[in-house]
Design brief:
alpha+beta; single chain; 418 residues; elongated; 5 strands
Length: 418
């Protein structure tokens, strides 16, 4: 039983999937031959034009007809590969708004090269492979033909001879060779179709870049939405509980006057810790995504940041309309972190923040009169590298000019096209 199973696997493995591949070859034959009559017509008209001037006007007709049928043949080839072998050939980028661009685009001429040059060559190979299959089937079943056909219908009367046995063995060998030839031809045709009918390498790279940019934008938006959710949860959950705890501790201090001194000290300490925790949580929530930014925009949010700093900060925001939420959040965090760096490291006496929209670009400038010397390459300390990464996440540009002795000017350009 195991020997029978092994023989079945060995004999059947070469023919696995051969039917669909052979059908692909057979279906491609008429598509490959479709342009041949037009090119024969063109060659004949070109030859006739040398002797008959009137034939010159006929010469462009085959070319025009070839250009017209090329999209139809391309669609047929795509359907053939998709239906028979499950191969989906991506469509190249084609500008459908302009006929001139379509006729002068590289995609059309690559398609024309496939149908007019590679197609006839593949047609010859298709005929060879199909002839091999036909000869193999006829030769391998020769004894069936000898038995089934009447004597008067036979081209030659081989009978049950040694020659008939040789032909049968040769047919069986061709049967095992047919799948290999078909597989090689299908691979060759598929590769040519991918190169000439699919998008070019440049188009593939452009699509890849566009897909990556879209994917990154989705990740940035998802991260921003997650920050908003965390901010809401902290504001509506933990922060409210801490406020309630601080209120209860304050009421306990006011109403419980007969407590021992040790208990009152513990109650005072707990009340103070609760208020400090509320302050720290407020700072954390404001750092994640301030509610004022979402409600009132950059002007109000940056004014609030400037009001909390120990140095005077002039804020000038000129926005005819609000930028996208993600860009707005990046601008806020860049200004907030830059001003924090000014207070911690710059030894500045004042700072200026300018935010304006120029076309489809949001320009953010943070300047101070500090000691300068800020270095983007330094990983620790100033945090400028983190700001640059945050700006790059939305395809923005970041620059920092900070000579020794100051001043320091941080310039950020953020694309805010809809």
């Amino acid at each position: 039983m195991q020997l029978t199973t092994w023989l079945r696997l060995v004999a059947g493995r070469p023919f696995r999937g051969a039917g669909r591949r052979t059908a692909l070859v057979a279906a491609g034959l008429p598509l490959h031959l479709a342009v041949v009559p037009l090119w024969l017509w063109l060659l004949g008209a070109t030859a006739a034009s040398a002797h008959t001037p009137a034939a010159v006007a006929v010469t462009p007709l085959p070319v025009l007809l070839t250009l017209l049928v090329t999209p139809l043949l391309t669609a047929g080839q795509r359907r053939r590969y998709r239906a028979l072998v499950g191969k989906d050939l991506p469509r190249p980028a084609v500008d459908g708004r302009s006929v001139v661009r379509r006729l002068t685009g590289r995609a059309l001429w690559r398609h024309l090269c496939y149908h007019a040059v590679a197609g006839p060559l593949f047609a010859v190979l298709d005929l060879v492979v199909l002839a091999v299959w036909a000869a193999a089937l006829v030769a391998a079943s020769l004894y069936v033909w000898i038995w089934a056909l009447p004597t008067q219908w036979r081209v030659t009367d081989l009978g049950y001879t040694t020659q008939a046995a040789y032909i049968t063995v040769g047919g069986l060998a061709l049967l095992f060779l047919g799948p290999r030839l078909t597989d090689v031809l299908v691979r060759l045709e598929t590769r040519a179709a991918e190169v000439l009918l699919g998008p070019s390498r440049t188009e593939k790279l452009a699509r890849r870049v566009a897909d990556l940019a879209e994917s990154r934008a989705g990740v940035v938006d998802a991260a921003d939405a997650e920050r908003r959710r965390i901010e809401r949860d902290l504001h509506d959950g933990a922060q409210q509980r801490l406020v309630a705890l601080a209120v209860n501790l304050g009421l306990a201090k006011a109403t419980l006057g007969d407590l021992p001194e040790e208990a009152r000290k513990v109650l005072d300490e707990a009340h103070r810790e609760a208020k400090e925790a509320i302050t720290e949580l407020n700072d954390l929530v404001r750092g994640l995504h301030p509610a004022v930014l979402e409600d009132r925009g950059l002007d109000a949010a940056l004014s609030g940041v400037a009001a909390r700093l120990p140095i005077p900060v002039r804020v000038a925001v000129d926005l005819p309309r609000r930028p996208p939420p993600t860009v707005e959040a990046v601008a806020y965090f860049v200004v907030s972190e830059a001003l924090t760096n000014v207070v911690k490291h710059a030894q500045a006496s004042r700072a200026d923040v300018t935010v304006e929209r120029i076309g489809e670009t949001l320009l953010v400038v943070v300047a101070d009169d500090g000691a300068g010397g800020a270095d983007l390459a330094v990983a620790g300390g100033t945090g400028l590298a983190g700001l640059a990464q945050r700006v790059a996440s939305v395809d923005g540009t970041f620059s920092c000019r900070s000579p020794a002795g100051g001043p320091t000017v941080v310039t950020v350009e953020l694309p805010c096209a809809p």
